[in-house]
Specification:
Order of helices and strands: EHEEEHEEHEEHEEHHEEEH
Distance between the termini: 30 Å
Strand order of the largest sheet: 3-4-2-1-5-10-7-11
CATH superfamily: Spore Coat Polysaccharide Biosynthesis Protein SpsA, Chain A
CATH architecture: Alpha-Beta Complex
Shape: globular
Structural class: alpha/beta
Oligomer: single chain
Number of helices: 7
Strand content: 15-25%
Number of strands: 13
Length: about 260
């Protein structure tokens, strides 16, 4: 029985392989420091795509391999859904946290938030939105809204549609089961996974009552300076993405692991 299964979207490549090893080091340190003895029991999986598998899903050690192409769209959506289906069929859990390799979590802080909000059904780190009246912000919004308007009754989708942030969202087992019910997923295969998953949830419950995961977060788009950040030790989540140099993101991740997991 796991309190939280953490599904980490992964792929192969020099930079991503470094993130993978840093995650593994972080997990080992977390367990060594007594993470397993806390009230929140975690299980971690790295989720890969492999179109040449003989089976739809194969779990080996800390990896889940899904039979699909590695891609942003629809690869991330498909392997997320397939990994969730595996967890639902093979494991006992309370909720699933979906995240990615470059996002950093301080699990001590996250655990306290989960313990204090055990009834959470849909949680996200950041609220993202699509605004029908501000389509100039993102040229793809118009397409997303047209998909939703074709799937749902007229008027059911309001002017603003909030969706989960792919960097980190938490779904209860009840929500996972709703998400995995049969649905004509083809119209969603060429849109971002976080938008697609939010549309699927909206289809099930016709209102995305998302709660914010109330932990201190930071968008890290420059060099990490450790104790120089205000409230550094209270941080629970770091979106580690400067948008230019992924090597800097890796270096920052190393500093984060050292700061939160390796120091005494």
């Amino acid at each position: 029985m796991y309190s939280v299964i953490v599904l980490i979207i992964a792929s192969s490549g020099d930079i991503y392989d470094l993130f993978l090893e840093l995650w593994r080091e972080k997990i080992k340190c977390w367990i060594r420091k007594g993470g397993d003895s806390l009230a929140v029991d975690y299980r971690f999986f790295f989720v890969f795509a492999d179109p040449f598998l003989m089976e739809d899903v194969i779990c080996k050690d800390d990896c889940i391999y899904c039979k699909c192409e590695e891609s942003l769209e629809p690869g991330i959506l498909l392997k997320t859904m397939m990994a969730m289906c595996f967890c639902e069929n093979e494991l006992v859990y309370d909720s699933i946290l979906r995240t990615n390799l470059s996002s950093f979590w301080n699990f001590s802080v996250l655990s306290l938030e989960i313990i204090s909000n055990m009834e959470i059904s849909i949680g996200t780190i950041f609220f993202q939105f699509i605004d029908r009246n501000r389509l100039d912000i993102n040229p793809r919004w118009k397409d997303y809204l047209e998909r939703m308007d074709s799937l749902f009754p007229i008027g059911s989708v309001g002017d603003v549609f909030y969706f989960l942030d792919g960097a980190g969202f938490l779904l209860s087992r009840e929500m996972i089961r709703l998400l995995l019910l049969p649905f004509p997923i083809e119209p969603l295969l060429d849109i971002p996974d976080d938008v697609a998953i939010s549309i699927l949830l909206f289809y099930r419950i016709f209102v995305c009552n998302m709660g914010r995961i109330e932990i201190k977060e930071l968008l890290l788009d420059r060099k990490w300076i450790g104790d120089g950040w205000e409230g550094c030790d209270l941080l629970g989540f770091v979106r580690n993405k400067n948008g230019v140099d992924r090597k800097l993101d890796v270096l920052n991740f190393i500093h984060l692991v050292n700061h939160y997991y390796l120091k005494n």
